[in-house]
Amino acid sequence: MKTRVLSGLIMLPLLLILYFGGYVLFAACLLIGIMGVREFYNGFRQMDVKPSFGIAVVMAVALYVLNFIGVRYEGYMLWFFVTVLVSLLYLFNIENRKLEDAMSTITGIFYVVFFSFHVTLVDQAGPYSNMIWLIVLTAFGTDVMAYFTGFLLGRHKLCPKISPKKTIEGSVGGIIGSIILSGLFGYFFMPEILVHCLVIGLLGGIVSQFGDLTASIFKRKMGIKDYGNLIPGHGGILDRFDSVLFTGPMVYYYIVLVIGYMPN
Amino acid sequence: MKTRVLSGLIMLPLLLILYFGGYVLFAACLLIGIMGVREFYNGFRQMDVKPSFGIAVVMAVALYVLNFIGVRYEGYMLWFFVTVLVSLLYLFNIENRKLEDAMSTITGIFYVVFFSFHVTLVDQAGPYSNMIWLIVLTAFGTDVMAYFTGFLLGRHKLCPKISPKKTIEGSVGGIIGSIILSGLFGYFFMPEILVHCLVIGLLGGIVSQFGDLTASIFKRKMGIKDYGNLIPGHGGILDRFDSVLFTGPMVYYYIVLVIGYMPN
Asked: Which of A233, B19, B57, B216 is the one with CA 20 to 30 A from A154?
């Protein structure tokens, strides 16, 4: 608990990355995507499944290069095709490969690299680029508030088979915390879209918990407790960013579909 | 052999579908995608892996609806995200699901539904929509020519661990056959882009064999001989269209990247 809180301070550089945005954030997202997919694949190795980290690195770099040179949506489609294609060709060494090796390669690249890529996309969303803060506010706000609410008031288990310590009270507290934090952010920094911030706070409070639980399911099936031990008390990169993988796309598609702003 | 050739005649309706194009082809592609992914998932069930056919049907219909209403690339990106997301949420019934169930769901939708979707995209490629014929000419031309060349001249095994009967001679014959057929097609129907047709014939002769071998790898790992028995002597839908899954995207991205035509 003490380690957990203290180590939380190590996350402070993240604030700087978010503040600077642009190239700094771009590089950070790529790096976190690559480190995250490495942890994800290491988990699979515990199940004797061997995804190709090499393919993941190449495809992660390719995705960010496409974005950098301005080849957007039609490029992402080609990227999707090539990602699946190359992962399937990985099976041609048939004696040393299982179908799971290719399927986990595909899943890791999309789940970790592609999902986290949306953080960069939000940063590029012109007048709405500040909404990048909502990605982390909802993710970490939900996490912290759920933790303390559950600690103080938790009585009823949420889904003991996936995550035994989580409670319904904690879950609700997390959502309320996410709404409050997003609301405060909107009130002070984006008052003209305060209502959108509140709605994102609500949605983020929900999807961030799905992100957390999804990671828990993977870890449980892989038979590991944490994805890594990069940050003492916080586990690996993926343990810390499991919710961001879900709140990033949520904020991005909210901007595109609800607000109607199309980043180019 | 006789059954194989006779049953080939059953493929004639395919010519009508290609000739009509438009809505007829659109519907046929969606149907073939859904039937194909069903066969693919049935193969996984032999390995005690249980992908969700329900998710695949919903996502296949969603992809074609997006295309139909004209929400293209940015919509496909959302479709990719939702496909992965929903397949991951499928794991929340944690006691009855394995990671492989979600990963095979994802792989099937992308490999079968998304790859075959490119046939529709080529049909929508304005002045180049006739290149849809090259998708099947290269796929079936390679297949038939490789079969007969291998039958007559085959001496050296191509990759006995994946497909024991294939020979290098057959493979080369298939590529040459694909070039000749594509060249003849270009000469008579698209003389202004004859060179492109020849190049596509060469590329198609290669990628269609990769498509064939990829399907063989899956079937071998699944422990099945054919994906189905829809067409006597030809197996299932996927046995027939395994090469089209690769030549379809190849022709589409050739049009976009090499010819430089961007379908809208």
From this structure: A233
A74, A111, A162 member nearest B88 (Cβ): A111
Contact B132/B25 with Cβ under 8 angstroms?
A: yes
DSSP notation for A124-189? TSGGGGGGHHHHHHHHHHHHHHHHHHHHHH--SEEETTTEEEEEHHHHHHHHHHHHHHHHHHHHHH
Please answer yes or no on whether B94 and A161 come within 8 Å at the CB atom: yes
Span A94-145, pLDDT tens digits: 999 999 999 999 999 999 999 999 999 999 999 999 999 999 999 999 999 9
Q: Each residue of A170-196: pLDDT tens digit?
A: 999 999 999 999 999 999 999 999 999
B143, containing H or E segment = helix B132-153
ipTM of the complex: 0.94
Strand partners, B157: B167
Q: Give the Cα separation of A118 and A129 in Å (integer).
A: 12
Specify the DSSP class assigned to residue B231: B
CA A124 to CA A252: how far, in whole Å?
10
Joined together, the tokens standing for residue A238 give 């993926």
Sort strands B157-159 and B163-167 into parallel, antiparallel or unpaired.
antiparallel
* Residue of chain A whose Cα is closest to the Cα of B246: A85
pTM of the model as a whole: 0.94
User: What distance lies between CA B108 and its chain's CA centroid?
Assistant: 12
Residue A235 DSSP class: B
Q: Residues near B29 by Cβ (< 8 Å), separated by ≥ 6?
A: B64, B116, B117, B119, B120
Give ∠ CA B233-B237-B242 in degrees, rounded to 5.
100
Does the distance separating the beta carbons of A103 and B107 come in below 8 Å? yes
Can you tell me the distance from the alpha carbon of A214 to that of A217, in angstroms, rounded to the nearest whole number? 5
Q: Which residues in chain B have their CB less than 8 angstroms from residue A214's CB?
A: 88-89, 91
**What is the CA angle B10-B63-A118, rounded to 5?**
145
CB contact under 8 A, B84 and A115: yes
3-class SS at B125? coil
Q: Per the CB < 8 Å rule, is A217 touching B91?
A: yes
Instruction: Quote the CA–CA distance of B264 and B252 in Å, as a whole number.
Output: 13
